[in-house]
Each structure stands twice: as C-alpha cells, then as structure tokens.
Design goal:
With 94 residues, the chain is an all-alpha fold. The chain contains five helices and no strands. 64% of the residues lie in helices and 0% in strands. The longest helix is centred in the C-terminal third of the chain and has 17 residues.
Amino acid sequence: MADLQDQGLITPEAMFELGMKYASGREVPIDLITAHKWFNIAATKGHAEAAQRRREIAAEMSDSEIGQAQRAARDWLKAHAEPSAPAVVLRAAA
C-alpha cells in the first residue's frame, strides 16, 4: 500500500479504508490525526461516507490535532496532485 500511496495510485475507497484502520486500531495503532487525514482526502475525492466519519472523529480531537490532520491532508494532496490536462489553444479561422 505504501508504494501506491507514494505513486498517488490509491483509490478513494482505499483512502477511506486507511482512515477506518487508523480510527479503529485495526492492524495499526489508533491514530486519530492520521485517520482524519485519510477521511479528509477520501472526502475530497468524492467518498460520501468519509466526510461523516471525519466529523465523528473530529468530535474526539482537539483543535490542534484537527489542524495537524488538515495540514497532513493538504501536504499529501499537494505531493500527489493529479496532472493537469494540457491547455487547448483555439484559433480563429482566417
């Protein structure tokens, strides 16, 4: 999974599942900051349930922890930005 994360080839569903793992402590230690980060990223990619889970765990976090999670999500999104489509140049007929 780490290789997929590094390459930006991770689906919103996989991001949501990472959030669930960190929120529940399933296979990894509980880490609400990391869970919030993955739920936040999944939500921005269109995963509907991720936004709800993010709100639920945010209720258990301090403002500082939420800020850390938001910065981590923003940093991940910047590092894994999808390439932009090439610009199309339209020319008027002569």
